[in-house]
Amino acid sequence: MKRDGWSLSSRVTWVVAGTMVLMLACAFAISFSFARPLLAGRLDSLAREELDEVSTYFSVHSLIHEEFNELAQTLISHHPNATLRFGYRAGNQAWTWCPDPPPGQDLDESGYPLETNPSQRLLTSKTYFPMPEDGDGQAVDLAVFLDGSAMMSSTAELGTRLLLVLGLAALAGMGPILLLHRRVSTLLTNVAQATRLAAEDPDALRDATADAPREVAAIMDALQDRLGEVRKENDHSHLLIAGLAHDLRSPVQVLLGEAEVTLMRTRTAEEYRTSMETISEELRDLSGVLENLMMLVGRQRGMAPRATEKFDLNREADLRLSRERAWAERMEVQLMIHSEGKLEYTGDRESVLLALRNLVRNALDHAPQGSRIQITLMGDEGRVQISVEDEGPGIPLAQRERLLAPFTTRDTPGRTRRTGGGLGLALVKQAADEHGGSMNIDDSPSLGGARVSLDLPRP
Fold it and tell me: What architecture does CATH give domain 251-410+418-457?
């Protein structure tokens, strides 16, 4: 199902573009805030420098208009990017400007500019210079008019060019980012498509991330592991449902058939008793299947918590095997129990005893009528061992590993019924794994049939 939501492609594009615009705006604002004070200081310094130079010169020279004009021309030529005008007046006379009055300025009656703008500077000073006629010094006012509009324009033009260069650099930087983003977006799209195909092709996800970055590959590995677990759970569920349907069908059919045959005509009490015994055995088998199934599924799904407690294995075995003893008596099978050593054990009592019962049931299920079954319980300081041996046909070596899977059974010549639904040995293996132990299937050296052992270390 597709969901409507935000697009990674559009989101990254807008974020990158917005970041670049913000960076350019910040660069422009910073440049403007620093450039204007610096330029203003530069204009002040230049105007003061030119005024001081003129004042110094005419403090030792007589003020002659031609010389003043020549000096003004020389100073103006040194600063082609600025508009400079130099003026002087003696006493209350009108101002004389060289080479001409300040351009674009309104002058008062004395020829002095009325006002200036932020890009202009107007400085004055008073100095004394010797008069050529009588040699006495005379006070004179000097003025410098500086128009820095051209300097500001050139600075603004430089700033614009710099901003343009930064913009082009930002655009050039966006290219690799967008290219990388497009590659990641394409990769994620391929991964999404491969995930949909993973159910049919487990390698599709691995192929889609063959050259992915480490960060994406780590996510995909986790996803692949999870998909593997989901496939495993799905296979297990299918196996569970199929096995349950198969193993419940047999006893239900026997129960239905037995009941229908019994009701077909009036029978004697002995015949009714025989029929009820058959029904009881089938119900017992059905109960065993459900008990094993609930334990297996509950433990694998974590619904049946493991309870650790201390118990006497010999005593519990004597109490829990009453149903198996009754079954052995009906089959005329001799059930022998031998216990030896320290049999107090700390662990999951229900799991261990269910494993013991399943070992005995498995032996009864394959033991010939009139045979023997040996149950051995042994314990020492480091471990407890449970082994069950029978006089049946044994378990072929090629089948031993396979029988540990749920719903897996073996065919025994002369066998007419089955118990546990193929879950017994799987539960024994699960009990061994839960307690850090092991399970072993081999041949019985004394009885000639199969021997199944459960070895549990002490915690």
Answer: 2-Layer Sandwich (3.30)
